[in-house]
Amino acid sequence: MTDRAIDVYGLTKRFGDRVAVDNVAIRMPRGQVWGFLGPNGSGKTTTIRMLCGLLKPDAGQGTCLGYDLIADSGQIKRQVGYMTQKFSFWEDLSIRENLEFVARLYELRNIKQVIDQTLETLGLSSRQKQLAGTLSGGWKQRLALAACTLHNPAMLLLDEPTAGVDPQARRDFWDQIHRLAAEGLTVLVSTHYMDEAERCDEIVYIAYGQLMTQGPVSRIIDESGLHTWVAEGPGVRALADRLRGRDGAEHVAYFGSALHVSDSNAAKLDALIASEGGAGTQWRRERPSLEDVFIDLMSQAQDKS
Ligand SMILES: Nc1ncnc2c1ncn2[C@@H]1O[C@H](COP(=O)(O)OP(=O)(O)OP(=O)(O)O)[C@@H](O)[C@H]1O
C-alpha cells in the first residue's frame, strides 16, 4: 500500500478554451488533513472532481489511494467520501431515512449497525427522527458528513463544507474532522476561511488553475518574502487612500478596523511607513497573516495570467 493518499502530477482540465486546472501536482500523505484554498473559480472543485474519479482529466496522471486516477476510477469512487458544495437530501425523510437511502446506494450490509455507529460518531443519534428539511445549516452539514462517511471511506474530499454555517457549527465540524483523521482518514477540504486553513496540517493554494504554493501555514508565511506593517487609529481610512498604488505598498487591505500594508521590499515599505507616521495612527510591524500572503499570491497569479 502506498503511503500517499494523493499522488498526481500534470493534472489539467479544460472547459472549451478555458483552462480550469493547469498542470497541477499534489502529493499528499495518508492520515493528514489538508486545506485546499484559492479564489472563486480557481479550479478547486474541478481538481477535487478529478481526484475522486468523477471527471476525467485532459492531461496528467497519478494515483489516488494507490489506484490509477483514470484506469481505476471505479475503485477510487468506492473508497472516497465526497461532500459536494451543494449537498442535497430528501427533505421529507428523516436523518435516519436519508442515511438508509445512501446506505442502499452503496449496497452496504449491516445497514442498521452502520447507521447507528455513524449517528453516534457524528452526534446525530438524538435527532435521527427529525426531517432533513427542518434541520439548521449546521445540522444539515453534519448529515452530509454522515452520508459521505457511511461507507467507511479511506479519504474524504470535502468541497467548502462549512460555507454559510455559524462559527460554533464550523468549530464542531472541525472537531469531527480531526477526530476522523485521528482514526486514520485522510481529508482534503476546500475552504475560503483562514481560521480553517490554520487548522490543517498543510495547505495547497491554487489560483487561475495553477498551484501557487503548498506546505504548512507557518512555512508558507515564512517563504512568502512579504513584509507587513499594521496601522490602527482614526486616521486609517484616509491613510488607505493615500497609500494605495504607492511604491512600497503592494497591498493595502483592511483586517477589521486595522490596515495591513505589505510589500516584498522591506526597505521601500519601511521608508514609506516612516513618511506616513502622522497623527491619529499607530503603527506596528507584524508577521504577515496567511490572508496577506494569499492576497499577494493572487496578485502574482493575476500578473502571470
Ligand atoms: N462543467 C463546467 N463547464 C464549463 N466551465 C466550468 C465547468 N466547471 C467549472 N468550470 C469553470 O472552471 C473554472 C474553475 O471552476 P471551479 O468550480 O473548479 O473553481 P473553484 O475554485 O471550485 O471555485 P469556487 O471557490 O467558486 O467554488 C471556473 O472558471 C468555472 O466557471
UniProtKB/TrEMBL annotation:
Q: What keywords are assigned to this protein?
A: ATP-binding, Nucleotide-binding, Transport
PROSITE patterns, per the entry: ABC_TRANSPORTER_1, ABC_TRANSPORTER_2
A GO molecular-function descriptor:
ATP hydrolysis activity
Q: Where is the ABC transporter domain?
A: 6-233
The answer, when asked if Amino-acid biosynthesis is one of the entry's keywords, is no
Q: Which CDD domains match?
A: ABC_DR_subfamily_A
What family is reported? Belongs to the ABC transporter superfamily.
What's the protein here called? ABC transporter related protein
Species of origin = Asticcacaulis excentricus (strain ATCC 15261 / DSM 4724 / KCTC 12464 / NCIMB 9791 / VKM B-1370 / CB 48)
